[in-house]
Design brief:
Blueprint lengths: L1 H21 L9 H12 L3 H15 L5 H28 L7 H19 L4 E2 L35 E3 L4 E3 L4 E3 L4 E3 L4 H32 L6 E3 L5 E3 L2 H11 L1 H29 L4 H13 L13 H9 L2 H8 L1
Antiparallel strand pairs: 1-3, 2-3, 4-5, 6-7
Amino acid sequence: MYFVSLFLAYIALCIAGFLCYWFQDPAVFQNASVKWVMQVAGNFTPQFVKTIAYDFYRIVFLERNTILRNIYILLVILGHLVIILDIFPHNYTYHPRENHVIIPLLMLLVSSVLFIICNLTDPGTITRRSNHYNKVFTYDGVLYKAGKMCSTCKVVKPARSKHCTLCQSCTFKFDHHCSWVNQCIGGLNQRYFLGFLISVCAMCANAITMAVRTLWDITQHKQLWQTKYVDSNGDPQPMNALTLSQYLFMQNPRIVFLAASLSTILVLLGAFTSYHLYLAAVNQTTNERYKHHYLQTSRHGYKMVNPYDKGIWKNFEEVLWPNVVHVKLKD
């Protein structure tokens, strides 16, 4: 039961961390359901725990820093160390003629390149000299109004732009600030961000496949399903899934934990990636979706209209080749 308890605790921690990242936008906390959950949870949480949790949340999510970026790099390194030290030896023992290195190596290379690009590429920072951003999108008169100045940057805000308090700059086609890359996601780096998310999902899926295959090979080689175990009364019992998983965890803890942890991450990250692919398909940003939701709840009879939706294929074309590139070429 220790494995089950540890795994459930890990899942709870992953979900809590995912929700903290998902809800880092203050607008989400205005939702009545979220407020109710926060209030109920607060009533059962000691004050010192709430203080520590808030300070951690404020430092990691509300201040610009490299903490999550470094954590991601560390997790990738640790995960691949498990593959190298624990999985590869079993792979080449049971399947010596196969090349087990090339696929994870290529996936790591692609994901690392996209991660670096996301960290270094300009998301579309708006300055007084970047007048071309004003020619890309028209103002809808609801979320974006012509002539509106940014009180911090002292520039006219183009349609679909937003000021980021963490980066202290306005960003073209602002989506959100991603703490994992310590960078805003905007019109110029959205394509790299989507590619990075997809590559990480693929990398996790491949690692899970390798880990599960290794555990299956161990089970088959040792004929664990045909063995029996002794229960608390000293009686032999046929092998079952729970006992087998505990045995594998005790004998191969890193491989089992890698498979179980990445499965949880893949579900959460897959949902997050699907959400951003949907936004790209309808040509909407996270910022715009939050704003429309706020207007729908605060204004009676408000109907969301997205004037930037050009159809799924043209929307993805805009993500892959932003309109600002066309404007620069014309200029």
